[in-house]
Hints:
heterodimer, A: mainly alpha, MetI-like fold, 2 domains, 16 helices, about 70% helix, B: mainly alpha, about 75% helix
Amino acid sequence: MTLQSTKFSVPSEKWKYKSKRSERTRSAVIFIASIFLLIYVLAPVGWLLSSSFQSEAEIVSVPPHWLPHEPTMENFNAIFFQEFEEVTYETRRKVDPAAGGYIPSTAKDLLPSMWNSFIISVAVVILNLVVGVPAAYAMAKIRFWGRQASVYTILTTRVIPDIALVVPFFLVIKNLGLLDHVMSLIITYLAITVPFTVFILVSYFESLPDELDKAARVDGCSRLQTLIQVFLPLARPSLVAVMLFAFLTSWNEFLLALMFTQTIASQTLPIIVASFTSDFTISFSFINAAGVVAIIPPVILALFFERYIVSGLTAGAVKG
Amino acid sequence: MSGFYTGLKYTLARRFNYEARSAGLFLFPVMSVLAVVAVFPILYSLYTSFFNLKLTRPHRVPFVWFDNYVKVLSDELFWESVMRTVSFTVMSVVAILILALFIALLLNESFHGRRFISAMILIPWAIPTVANGLLWKWIYDSGYGALNGLLLQLGLIDKYVVWLGDPDKTIPLIANAFVWKEVPLAAILILVTMKSIPVDLYQAARVDGANLLQRFVHITLPSLKPGFMLVMIYETMMAIRHFDLFFLLTEGGPADASHVLSWQIYVETFRNLSFGTGSAMSYILALVTFALAYAIIKMLGRRI
Lengths: 320, 304
C-alpha cells in the first residue's frame, strides 16, 4: 500500500505545478500568509516583552513606543535582585498617582512563588509517571475484567468543569489539613493531569505489538519487569510528552491555586502575577515584566520539545 | 497480623489469577488518587446541589430535593448568562475553526521556514492563562494600550477608546484573547487530519480535471470532517467552562456584559456563599459538558 502510493506520488510532485508562474504565485501566497501568521502569533508577546523593558515614564507615552527608546532593566532587577525602594506611605506620596509608577513591595514574592510553581510542577510530573505509567500499561496490555470501563472512568473525571469542583475540592483539601500547603496543589494537579497522561500512554502502549509483551512474559519476566525493561525504554517519546503536559498544566493552572493558597507559603506564580493586574497603583511595565517572567519557562520548554509536544497532542486524537 | 496477611494473600490468590492481580495492583494508585480528588468531589457536588446550603447560615441546611435546580432554571440572570456563554462559545469556536483551517493549510505546504513557523505557533498554547489575560488586558488598555495606539496611528480612530468598558465589545474582545491561545492546538489537530488524506485522491481528481478550488471543496473539506468535529467539540467544552479570562479581564463587567455562566457560578458560590444553588448550576454545566465529552471520548476511544 505504502509502496504503491510512493510510486505514484513521486513523479506527481514534478507536474504538480503547471508553470513557473503558478509556482511563483504559490510562493508569494505562502510568504504573505506566513508573515501574517507570525505577526498574529508573535506581536502580542513582542509587545509585552517590549513594554517590560520600558521605564514608567516611557510606557505612558501616547502613542506608545513600539520599541523601548531607553531600555531599562529596572523591573527585572526588582524581581530578581530586589533592587527597589521599599514603598512606604511617605515615599508613595511622592509618586505621581495618575501615572502609577511604583514597584510593589510584593515584588519580592515573585521568586518564592516561582519556586513554589517549580516544586509543584516537578512533583506532579514525577507522581504522574509513578501513578500513570503502570495504570496505562495495565489498561493497554493486560486483559482483565473492567478494562474498558476503567479507561472511560479515568477520562470522565476530566469532563466536569473545574469551577464546578472547586467547592468539594476545597472540602477535601481542608479535611486533609492541607490548606495553604503546596501539597494541596500537588494532589489536585495530579488528579487533573493524570487522566491525560494515562490516555496518551495507553494509546502508545496499544500501538506496540502484543508479541513483545508475550515474549517477555514467556522469558519469565514478571508484569513489573516487562513494563520496566521492555515497554518503558520504547515509550520514551510519549513519556517526554506526558511529562511536558503535566509540567505545563501545573505551571499554568490558575483557578485552583486561587482557591487553595493564601500566603506565599504556597502561592504559585500565576497567583502573584494576577494579584498585580488588579492593583492600579502598580507600574504597567513592572506588571508586564512579571508576565514575561511567567511566560519564559513554558515557552522555552515548548520550543525545545516542540516535536514531542506535537506528537503527544495528536497521539490517538486522529486515526492515522 | 501475619496470619491475617497470609490468609488474605491466599484468598486473593484463589480469587484472582496473576494477571488480574497485577492489573489491580497497577491500577490501584491512580484509582485511589482519582477516588479522593475526583470521584468524591464530583459526587459530593451532586449531593450539595440537593441542599439549601448557604455559608451565611451554616447551621441550618435543609434537604430541598430539586428546589435549587428549579430556582436556578427559573432565574432570569441564569438564562442571561447562559446566552452570554453561548455567544462567547459560538464566536470563539467559529473563529478557531476558520483560523485553524488556514494555519493548517499553510503548514501542510512544504516551504523554507515551515518548521520555524510551526514551532512559533506553539507559543500562545504554552503561555499561562494568567499571562494571556494580562497580555490582552494591557493591549486593550484604554490609556496606554497597543490596540488604541495602533488604531490611532493607522487613523482608524481619532481618540482613545475604552475597549473593555463597552458592553457590546466585551465578549468579542475576550473571545479574541481566548481564540489566540486556543488556535495552535486546533491547527495542529486539523493539520494531522490533513496529512492523513491520501495523495492519490488529489491525483485522481487532477486527472479528472478538478481545479484547486474543486479539489479543496470536494476532497480536503470532507476528509477533514473528523478533525473538525474533534476540534469543535473540544473547543466548545473549553469555551463554555472558561473562567480565567473573565476573572482577569473584566470580572463579569462592565455592568453584566461579561457575566457568563462560569462567572455566575463563581459569584453564586464564592461571593453569595450559596453553595447549594452554585452546585446546582455547576451540575447543569457539567451535564452539558458531559454530553459533549461523551461524543469526544467515543471518537477518541474508538481504538481503545
